[in-house]
């Protein structure tokens, strides 16, 4: 350590001596190195130099996050069931499994995961839901205007330090309204689905006239890998 400090001192002294001539400044680590994953990874390495763990009480790990957002004019009349949701990606064969055995299959590429960012079930509420299993479900309701005005909803999904669970933060009109956690959602491929179904969970009968569900400005961004 002592010789390192001496070396640093020598460099500073040399720079002072050279000051009469303009010197190019070489930035070794810029002040914005934490501003994005790409700049972070240009200048830093993950983990400790000796590995991932520090005396068993800390683990350093890269993380990523997806932000999924859009604006919605959603009908809330009885019997209308618009939705904006994430569910597991499955092969066509597995869809048959899901249809016939929806509530018992769980594992790689089977249901759940499911995250409902928008789900309107025939009342003036939007349901934010995360399914760990068919019966272990967290739901948070936010009231939703019935005048078909557009409102934004957003979900920020962040892999957790255990590299298994995912935190989901739900926003309506840019206000954080609910935080939920999905078990073992990391690494699961998901579909993002926008659909308008009738009846089912939204009650019956459905409306007799034309019903419109309008969606605009859907965007997905990702930080990390
Ligand atoms: C790890 O180190 C911290 C800081 O020295 C200490 O408080 C903690 O008890 C240690 N944990 C283990 C599991 O040894
Ligand atoms: C789902 O699992 C996560 C991770 O274990 C947990 O934090 C969350 O509370 C669970 N959800 C429910 C409804 O129990």
UniProtKB/TrEMBL annotation:
Keyword Signal attached: yes
Signal peptide: 1-24
UniProt domain GH16: residue ranges: 19-223
GO annotation, biological process: carbohydrate metabolic process
PROSITE patterns given in the database record: GH16_2
GO molecular function: hydrolase activity, hydrolyzing O-glycosyl compounds
Keywords on record: Signal
InterPro entries assigned to the protein according to its UniProt record, in alphabetical order: Beta-glucanase-like, ConA-like_dom_sf
The protein, known as: GH16 domain-containing protein
């Amino acid at each position: 350590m002592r010789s390192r400090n001496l070396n640093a001192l020598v460099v500073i002294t040399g720079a002072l001596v050279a000051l009469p001539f303009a010197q190019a400044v070489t930035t070794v680590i810029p002040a914005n190195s934490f501003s994005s994953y790409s700049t972070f990874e240009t200048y830093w390495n993950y983990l400790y130099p000796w590995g991932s763990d520090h005396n068993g009480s800390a683990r350093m790990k890269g993380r990523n996050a997806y932000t999924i957002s859009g604006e919605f004019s959603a009908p809330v009349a009885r019997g209308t069931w618009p939705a904006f949701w994430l569910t597991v990606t499955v092969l066509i064969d597995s869809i048959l499994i899901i249809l016939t055995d929806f509530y018992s299959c769980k594992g790689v590429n089977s249901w759940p995961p499911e995250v409902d960012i928008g789900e309107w079930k025939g009342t003036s509420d939007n349901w934010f839901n995360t399914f760990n299993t068919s019966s272990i479900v967290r739901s948070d309701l936010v009231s939703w205007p019935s005048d078909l005005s557009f409102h934004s909803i957003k979900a920020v999904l962040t892999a957790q330090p255990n590299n298994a669970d995912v935190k989901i933060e739900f926003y309506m009109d840019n206000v954080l309204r609910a935080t939920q956690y999905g078990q073992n959602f990391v690494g699961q491929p998901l579909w993002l689905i926008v659909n308008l179904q009738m009846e089912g969970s939204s009650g019956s009968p459905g409306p007799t006239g034309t019903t419109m569900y309008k969606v605009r400005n859907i965007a997905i961004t990702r930080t990390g890998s």
